[in-house]
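Incident log, support desk, overnight shift.

02:14 A customer reports that sequence design results differ from what the structure should imply. Their input is reproduced verbatim below. On-call engineer (initials T.W.) acknowledged and began investigating.
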């Protein structure tokens, strides 16, 4: 945290906040033994997301492709016109693996996808030794992105959700007083 100007007592407190934690699991009243938690940031805290962002702040510096970060979402993208572009993107995925290993993290390859926009060539990419799944659409920050960049699926999903909410309100508001 020193690189962010955090030193002294606050730095010591943050270090304790992140390292001196224990957890246990309770299922139907039965408790497990306490275990020490020595990685990650505490979930459900105000500080957790901020500290996570500080932790991953250098991730974009490790790749040549464009990167967008939002909370724990990472989007890596690049225009692929040639075999060289394809290799550069794969090199960036390898760089992300190295970065994650350096910081004691791991990308879940099962939650990583390849979405080729307006490019019908099937190229394969790997992360952590797994071939990444090619998809025709993928949600990103609440927006359904399709390979042809049409919005029909997203609009249909938003309309369904709005109609569902409207139906809920109609069913439940009829019992409320008019005044």
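02:41 Re-run completed on a clean worker. Output:
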């Amino acid at each position: 945290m020193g690189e962010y100007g955090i030193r002294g007592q606050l730095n010591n407190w943050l270090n304790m906040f992140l390292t001196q934690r224990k957890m246990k699991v309770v299922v139907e009243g039965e408790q497990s033994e306490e275990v020490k938690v020595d990685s990650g940031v505490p979930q459900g805290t105000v500080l957790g997301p901020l500290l996570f962002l500080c932790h991953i702040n250098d991730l974009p510096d490790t790749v040549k492709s464009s990167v967008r970060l939002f909370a724990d979402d990472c989007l890596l993208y690049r225009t692929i016109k040639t075999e060289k572009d394809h290799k550069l993107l794969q090199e960036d995925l390898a760089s992300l693996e190295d970065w994650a290993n350096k910081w004691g993290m791991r990308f879940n390859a099962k939650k990583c996808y390849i979405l080729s926009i307006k490019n019908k060539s099937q190229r394969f990419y790997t992360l952590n030794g797994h071939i990444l799944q090619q998809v025709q659409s993928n949600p990103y920050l609440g927006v359904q992105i399709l390979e042809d960049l049409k919005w029909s699926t997203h609009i249909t999903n938003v309309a369904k959700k709005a109609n569902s909410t409207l139906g809920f309100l109609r069913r439940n508001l009829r019992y409320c007083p008019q005044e």
